[in-house]
Structures are given as structure tokens and as C-alpha cells.
Amino acid sequence: MSKDYLVEIPIDKWVELRDMFNGDWPKNIVNYFTIDNYIKWREKSNEIANLHFYSLNGEWKSDATVLIVV
Q1: Above 80 in pLDDT, residue 1?
Q2: Phi, psi of 7, deg, nearest 5
Q3: Buried b vs exposed e over 16-25: b needs ≥16 C-beta within 10 Å?
Q4: Are strands 52-56 and 6-9 parallel, antiparallel or unpaired?
């Protein structure tokens, strides 16, 4: 039985993650703009310093699954 782990997605990869949802409109519109808003808020303010993006087993590039913790 294998175990799954949450792996943090580095800040410098957030734009790449967001851009994975830049297509197949309107299906991906909520995902794209949710991630985009968090990127913009993080750039403007350190008040959300506890903002983290996680993926299951670090596989976000292959399955685009992300957990956002604020």
C-alpha cells in the first residue's frame, strides 16, 4: 500500500500552474482566475504570507490537482 503526500508547489511555479488552465473556456475559468488572484494578492501584500499551494505527490504538472491553503 503506497502513501500519498502533499508536496508544496514553489512560488516560482504558480504562474506555470495558473497557465495550465488557460484554455478550454469556460470550463477552466474558475481555476485560472482563482490562482491568478492569489498570485496578484501575494505580490501586493505580505499579509497573506501563509498562502501555500500543494499537490498530491508533487504531480500537479500531470494532473493539475492543487490544494490552496490560506
Answers
A1: no
A2: -120, 130
A3: ebbeebeeee
A4: antiparallel
